[in-house]
Queue: 2 jobs
Job 1
Amino acid sequence: MTSINKPVALVTGGSSGIGLAIARRFRDLGMQVVLVGRRQGAVDAAVHELGGDVLGLTADVAKPEELDRLFAEVGDRFGRLDVLVPNAGGGEPAPLGQITEAQFDRQFSTNVKGVVFTVQSALPLMKPGGSIVVVGSTASIDPVPTLSIYGATKAAVRNLVRSWVSDLNGSGIRINIVSPGPTNTASLREAFGEHAEEGVALLTAKSPIGRIGEPEEIAEVAAFLASDAASYVNGIELFADGGASQA
């Protein structure tokens, strides 16, 4: 069941972790949510978990032709898009000397190319009052060892958004970045592999508030930036990391 009278919000990488938490928060705020992921099974499971006004669609954000298909379907169903959250992304740890071309290409394709063409493909559906909230990372200013390429992709996204603020001048569409610090997700633990608990302990020790974040806390920040409460907030990178990047 879908409702065209509700604000329409689309979240990429929405089937798990931070993306799923953002989709849940938007649903709770009364939005019609379009949840996007690469794998049909994961998307179906997320939609089943959330219920309500949630539509699950599949697309690989690194493939512009799939994004064109995705937004054509959104346009056919709803005729507009009010909130866009380009969240899909990921990192592959590797120290200098062990970085492969394949790792480099995968991270830049999803984290940078994917953001560029997600935003560009969505724009024709967005009207004045629309909001784009890009999910970045504190790695844009404070990359941990072995995540230099991931950090570089997030720094690139920050610069893209700074330029796009000018490109969107006069459109009435706002664009901001929420940059989470270490967040308690399955992907974070998978990145540490068999040393997950040790890795989380190290991140916790670095945090001025003594813990890592929860996906729901990042979702609250994304919801604020997407809302009318942030109607005069445009072009910022808001760090949600408990102060860890400043420690």
Note: The beta strands are 8-12, 32-37, 54-58, 83-85, 131-135, 174-180, 237-240.
Job 2
Amino acid sequence: MEPAYRGLGRCACSFWLAVAFDIVGLAVLLIGVFVNVFFYDLLIYAGAIIIFLSLVWWVFWYSGNIEVPPAELEDDVGLLKKNKGGLGAIRGTVSRLSGRLSSSIRNSLRRNGGTSPSRARRSAAGLPASPQAQQVSVDMATLAPQKRTPLSAVSSVAGCVVEMPHTTTETSPT
């Protein structure tokens, strides 16, 4: 037989801690507001923080006193009765179906190497799916400093002649 709890419920310790935090926090906050000390701002912030921390104890007290009838707990803790017809059978079927569906999705992601749906859509649309296919290779070489020439450079790009204006470059003595 379960003991009958009155008044504060099962979590009286959490209740009294919440009340104590509220009283201490309010006292510290009011001292910071009304007493002329040079660290009043510290007291105001500390009081507000203590009052905020009392919310933790209030949540513990409230959630510890929630009472759920055993009939509602049957399904949550795996005590689902097998002889239930109708709704219980539908829940079991839906549970098995969702388990199969989630395991098949999980297995397909493992086989495909974790391909995201957006990447799969891009590759189905004909665009390159891998980031390596979109990269451009650029060869870079170190050039020795050259003498300055007042001529403009001429470059041939894709069959077109492009004249580049003369630019001055600075080199650092290394």
Note: The chain has a mean pLDDT of 77.
